[in-house]
C-alpha cells in the first residue's frame, strides 16, 4: 500500500508541474508518450474525447500538430479542436489555424475529439502521432500521444497498451519474451523473492524478443518503467 501511495503522489505531482495536461472526458489522464488504441471504426467506440487542462494561473494558447503517420495518409481521420473540425489530417500540419485559448485553470470545450473512420484494408497498425504545444511559449511543456487503430487487437491487447505501452505476446514463456513496444520504456525482471535477474533493459518502438532461456522455471515479475518515471508490473511464467 505504501508503494501505491508513493506512485500516486509522484504521478499527481508530475501532472501538476506540467502547465498543460491531457485527460479523457472521464478524467483519466493521457500521459506524455501514451498510446491510446482502438480496434474499431464504429462510432462512438472509435472516438477519443479529450480535455486539455491549463494548470497555470494565466491563459495559454494551444495547437495540436500531426507529427507523423504510420501506414496511413490521414484520410478519414476526424480531428475537432476549437472552432475547426476536420475530416482528414496531414503530417507536419498544426491545427486549428488560430490557437485555442484556454483560461487559467480551465479546459477546452466539451466537443473536441479524435476518431478514425478509415476501415479500408491494408497494413496495420495505423498510428496517428500528435503533439499538443503552447503557442508563444517555447519553454512550455508539450504532450505527445498516439491514436492507434488495429482491427486485430483484442480487448486484452488494448488493456495492456493502456497500462504498459507494450503488448506481451504470451505470459507463458519457454525461451523468449515476445514484446510489441508502442513507446520507449525500460524493463526490469525480478523473481518472486525480489531479486533482479535482468536490470534496466531499454525497449524501443517495434517488435522485440528478450532471451530468458537461462532463467530457471518459475514465475517472474516484469517491471516496466517509463521515461518519466511511472512504473507498471506484470507476471509471466517461465516453463
TrEMBL record:
Signal peptide, first to last residue: 1-18
InterPro entries per record: Secre_tail
Top-level taxon: Bacteria
UniProt keywords, alphabetically: Signal
Pfam families assigned to the protein according to its UniProt record, in alphabetical order: Por_Secre_tail (PF18962)
Domain Secretion system C-terminal sorting: 182-233
NCBIfam families: Por_Secre_tail (TIGR04183)
Protein name: Putative secreted protein (Por secretion system target)
Amino acid at each position: 500500500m505504501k508503494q501505491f501511495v508513493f506512485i500516486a503522489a509522484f504521478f499527481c505531482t508530475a501532472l501538476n508541474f506540467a502547465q498543460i495536461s491531457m485527460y479523457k472526458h472521464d478524467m483519466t489522464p493521457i500521459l506524455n508518450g501514451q498510446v491510446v488504441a482502438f480496434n474499431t471504426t464504429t462510432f462512438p467506440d472509435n472516438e477519443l474525447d479529450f480535455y486539455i487542462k491549463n494548470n497555470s494561473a494565466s491563459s495559454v494558447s494551444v495547437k495540436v500538430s500531426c507529427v507523423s503517420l504510420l501506414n496511413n495518409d490521414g484520410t478519414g481521420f476526424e480531428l475537432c479542436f476549437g472552432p475547426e473540425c476536420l475530416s482528414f489530417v496531414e503530417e507536419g500540419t498544426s491545427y486549428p489555424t488560430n490557437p485555442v485559448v484556454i483560461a487559467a485553470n480551465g479546459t477546452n470545450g466539451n466537443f473536441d475529439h479524435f476518431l478514425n473512420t478509415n476501415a479500408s484494408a491494408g497494413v496495420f497498425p495505423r498510428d496517428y502521432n500528435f503533439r499538443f504545444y503552447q503557442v508563444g511559449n517555447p519553454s512550455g511543456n508539450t504532450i505527445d500521444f498516439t491514436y492507434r487503430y488495429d482491427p486485430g487487437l483484442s480487448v486484452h491487447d488494448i488493456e495492456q497498451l493502456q497500462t504498459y505501452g507494450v503488448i506481451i505476446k504470451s505470459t507463458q514463456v519457454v525461451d523468449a519474451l515476445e514484446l510489441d513496444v508502442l513507446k520507449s520504456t525500460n524493463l526490469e525482471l525480478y523473481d518472486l523473492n525480489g531479486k533482479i535477474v535482468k536490470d534496466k533493459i531499454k525497449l524501443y518502438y517495434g517488435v522485440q524478443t528478450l532471451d530468458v532461456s537461462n532463467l530457471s522455471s518459475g514465475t517472474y515479475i516484469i517491471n516496466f518503467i517509463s521515461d518519466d518515471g511511472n512504473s507498471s508490473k506484470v507476471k509471466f511464467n517461465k516453463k
